[in-house]
Every structure is written in C-alpha cells, then in structure tokens.
Amino acid sequence: MSLERIDKLLSSTGKWSRKEIKDLVRHGRVLVDGKAVARAEEKVDRETVCLIVDGKPVDCSPFVYVMLDKPAGLLSATEDSRQPTVLDLLPPELKRRGLFPVGRLDKDTTGLLLLTDDGGLAHQMLSPKKHVDKVYFAQVEGRVGPEDVSALAGGMVLEDGLHCLPAGLEPLEDGSSCLVTLREGKYHQVKRMLAARGKPVLSLRRLSMGPLTLDRGLKPGKWRFLSAQERAELQRLKGTQ
Ligand code: URA
Predict the structure, then answer these.
(1) How many Cβ atoms sit within 10 Å of the Cβ of residue 165?
(2) How confident is residue 51, by pLDDT bands cut at 50, 70 and 90?
(3) HSE-up of residue 76 (Cα within 13 Å, Cβ side)
(4) Ligand 1 centre from 205 Cα, in Å?
C-alpha cells in the first residue's frame, strides 16, 4: 500500500498546476472511487485508487515510459541552448514530468529511444552488468563479410585502446547492410567498430533494446506510451540481478 495526497498524485501527472488542482477539487471535478473529493490533501492508495477528473480516468502510475522513433537531426539530451533535443517532440505536460532518454543515440542515428522518469529502470538498462542487447540496422560503405563477423564476435580493440565486448554481426542479403548487436553502449561504438573494419557507416537505426522493439507503426519523430505488456517486461528486467 502506498498512501499519497490526491493533490500530489494529480500534480505528478504534469497535467495541472497546484492551483488548478485546488480549483478542480473545489468545484467537485475530482472523483475518488466515484465520490467527489472534499479536500485535496486527502490520502489515497496510488496503486489501487480510481481517480477521475472531468469524467476521464487519470493514470497515476508512478512513472511514465515513452517509445520514440528518433529522427535524425535531434540531440538525445533533455536540453541544449542551441540545438533541438528529442524532448522537443513531447507535449509540455510530459516535458514537465522530467523525462529523459535512456542512453544516447548520435544526432544522425534514428530509431528506438526510450524516454522515462524512472531512474532505477534507466540504470538497469544501461548497466554493463545487465548485458541488455541493443540491435542496430547499419548501412555501410563496402560489403560486410565473414571476417567482419569473426572480428566483432572476438571482441575488438579499437585504435584508442578501447576494448569492446564481443558483439553480434549479421550481414543482410544486399551485402552492404547488416544487423549489429551490442551489449554495451560506448561512444559512437557501432560506427567506430565498423569503421575499424574499413566499412564506414552511412546510416544507423536502432531497432531494439532488451525486450523493447521499435514499433513499426511509428514514424521518425512520433512517439507513444509503452503498452502494459512492454512495461511489465521492463519491470522484469528491473527485478533481475
Ligand atoms: N553506435 C553508434 O555509433 N552510434 C549510435 O548512435 C549508437 C550506437
């Protein structure tokens, strides 16, 4: 059981200011389990309460999880004084919740980006110990062959001495595109590994991260909330050692 004040719960959705919440309650527009709330300070169980504002149920889950198909040209950051960031694609109420991207994609990389305010989950997904696979679709200059597959599988050491964990490489039929699977996320890692093999990357798109797969129905720049099933899969990840 997790008791919390109604005004705090409503405010955590980012949809209303404290003052707006007071007004909503005063005008009987907030219902708890079917009854108008008398005082905004009343406490309810966040996990089981049915909160309704103006006839619409309010999602009081403690965290928000958003899947974004990142377009090229945006920074994977929460703010930047000069350049647009992925947060600029979200509506103000979500921006107010303090969402941040779980891991970074380069400015010109597209594809799956998870945005959340769940710091614990982000930590689990990014921890090298968790070995969460990230799969990328890469188009390269030249052709990817069996020697490249062996080199990545063996764990490459890059020019600057960076030791990469063994990575997966699956050449695709056209020969000049491939799937790369990483268990870590070092700076420019896919581009640097393939460049070291003499196959510079022309375009890069992330397709999946652990149990989360990019929704093909999304288009670059579009986002959606994670489904209950996707959230449950992420929670399982959080629960494992
Ligand atoms: N590897 C890269 O080189 N760039 C990315 O954006 C992600 C992985």
Answers:
(1) 14
(2) confident
(3) 22
(4) 8
Ligand 1: centre distance to CA 24 (Å): 46
Q: How far apart are CA 36 and CA 47, in angstroms?
A: 19
Q: Which amino acid, one-letter code, is at 133? A: D
106 close to ligand 1 (CB < 6 Angstrom) = yes
* pLDDT tens for each residue of 12-36: 877 888 899 999 999 999 999 889 9
Share of the chain above pLDDT 70, in %: 97
Q: Is 105 in the pocket of ligand 1 (CB under 6 A)?
A: yes
Amino acid occupying residue 159: E
Give tens-digit pLDDT for 142-189.
Answer: 999 999 999 999 999 999 999 999 999 999 999 999 999 999 989 999
Q: How many whole angstroms from 187 Cα to the centroid of ligand 1? A: 7
- Cα 77 to Cα 204: distance, rounded to the nearest angstrom: 18
* Torsion, Cα of 179, 185, 189, 193 (10° steps): -60
